[in-house]
Amino acid sequence: MNPWEMLGWTLVALPIVLGGFAFVGYPTIVWAWSRLRPSFALPPAPASDDEWPEISVLIVAYNEERRLRKTLDHALATDYPPHKLNVLVVSDCSSDGTDDLVLNYGDPRVRLFRMPERSGKPAGENAAGPHLKGEIVVSIDASILIPRDSLKPLVRALLDPAVGLASGRDISIGDEVREGNKAESNYVGMEMTLRSWETRVHSIVGASGCFYANRRHLQMVQLPPELARDFAAASVARMAGYRAVSVDEATCLVPRTPTLKAELRRKSRTMGRGLATLLYLRATMNPFKYGSYAFMMASHKLVRWMLFPSFLGWLIGPLFLVETASYTLVLTLGMIVGLITARLVVTWPDDKRLPKVIAFPGYIFVSIVAGWRAWLHLLRNEKAAMWEPTQRPVSDMPAAR
User: Fold this and answer.
1) How many contiguous H segments (helices) and E segments (strands) does the chain have?
2) Burial 315-325 (b: 16+ CB within 10 A, else e)
3) pLDDT for res 389
């Protein structure tokens, strides 16, 4: 085998090896490892309402007038003791009626802090610190709904002195007939199951950005504004000597992005911030210092995100194998067809239903393109674009399961 053939086979094999480990090998290892550990058990609930810790629900919002009221309604309708619950909305210089909605909400527990200039969600989370009340901070998105009985389990996890962060379990919801992004639900379900297994091993390596709770002193740690705090928060807790856990009983309802065009924007942004965060937290992949956490960080995050640029090998690798293995050109053809499919689904009219035959492969290839974009931004050392909240539909789901 000459060097060019060796290069070709390496490029062809790399996505298979990385993808196989990321989505089959690593989950299998963590599942088997978790069987050797006890399940994570929530500490006993306080005996009376007065014994529950005071908490702040933190929402960073930009132009969320259309969706924020329902989110506030559900947060305040949970079974958490009302006199122990506060809500702080950080407005990132909203230009619609978001600020007025909060100021006129009619509940003294709901307060507004307006940023002096538009700076993005991570900067808003950094600035929120002095305005928070209580021992625990629960961060939620402005578009999600918290079922009535989901807040207490999340807070109970932090009654364990060994736990520094508790992440909720996302439930992806939406109109499957009208939307073309049902595959997002399957991915979210897989991710939530993997986090449950990681919890049994020791710690998750990233929290749900939609719904997670942090000890206040950990929330006060200032992070560079280009990072994703929900991802970084688990490592901040781990570096401080705490566990970061996923709480299956603490569900939140997350409306799916309605189109794959919106999904491309969301994934490009989240993966871009995720790669920047991983680079910032690279010390946590030191196995001599962080043990199992280092293995899970490298496997769950680094290997999975390396998969996206490796798919370029299926475009290029077969070109070096034309004389010895011309059948590998099927991979190049498949990638080209896939990219055409991705282009088709992101330009599909929003008011027309996306055919199922292209919806799932479209989701796969949109994810690959989003990964390419994220790596390109990292290699160019480009700062993340100004935060634009994902435009999820307003959910009509009830608060209780």
Assistant:
1) 16, 7
2) bebbebbeeee
3) 63
CA dist 138 and 152 (Å) reads: 11
pLDDT for 171-224, tens place per residue?
A: 877 654 444 555 666 778 889 999 999 999 999 999 988 999 999 999 999 999
Q: Tell me the DSSP string of 214-273.
A: EEHHHHTS---TTS-HHHHHHHHHHHTT-EEEEEEEEEEEEEPPSSHHHHHHHHHHHHHH
Enter the tokens of residue 63. 């132009």
The whole-angstrom separation of Cα 10 and Cα 13 is 5
- Exposure letters 116-135 (e unless 16+ CB within 10 A, then b): eeebbbbbbbbbbeeebbbe
Residue 69's CB is within 10 A of a number of other CB atoms, namely 15
Long-range contacts of 279-282 (CB under 8 A, 24+ apart): 279/378, 280/224, 280/227, 280/232, 281/232, 281/235
Distance CA 293, CA 198 (A): 9
75-132 pLDDT, tens per residue?
999 999 999 999 999 999 999 999 999 999 999 999 999 999 998 899 999 999 999 9
Cβ proximity of 273 and 217 under 8 Å: no
Q: 291, exposed or middle or buried, with CB in 10 Å at 0-12, 13-18, 19+?
A: exposed
Q: What does each C-alpha distance from 31 to 19, 196, 294, 326 come to in angstroms? A: 17, 9, 17, 39
Look at residues 44, 22, 4, 1 and name the one whose alpha carbon lies nearest to residue 308.
Answer: 22
| Among candidate residues 354, 305, 382, 389, the one with its CA nearest the CA of residue 62 | 389
Q: Residue 395: what pLDDT?
A: 54
Domains parsed from the chain with CATH numbers? 1-35+304-388 (no CATH), 52-256 (3.90.550.10)
* Residue 353 pLDDT greater than 90, yes or no: no
Nearest to 213 by CA among 169, 257, 173: 169
Q: How far apart are CA 248 and CA 335, in angstroms?
A: 37
Per DSSP (E only), the strands in 256-369 are: none
